[in-house]
Amino acid sequence: MTALWIAHVTVTDADAYAKYAQAAGPAIAAHGGVFLARGGRFQQMEGNERPRNVVARFPSFNAAVACYNSSAYQAALAHAKGASERDLVIVEETPPPAK
């Protein structure tokens, strides 16, 4: 089953976070990740609002976890630490209903 990274982010240092975004994209792609949403328009319906929301799909849960733990992504993440407040969850997608 595919899996999703769902991140909710408040950027506190735009220059440092831009370095994260530049390095994170290739690390995510190297693990089969594809962005479905990346900072687009949103409407907060419940919970705590964060102005940047990102969703990426990976070919499997294991690929999503491996990406996060990879040296390339961790190097990118070093730029985001101290430059943002983030919540990130990896969720396995539900299979489509049988027809």
UniProtKB/TrEMBL annotation:
Domain DUF1330 as annotated: residue spans: 2-93
Gene3D superfamilies: 3.30.70.100
Name this polypeptide is given: DUF1330 domain-containing protein
Source organism of the structure: Paracoccus sediminis
Lineage: Bacteria, Pseudomonadati, Pseudomonadota, Alphaproteobacteria, Rhodobacterales
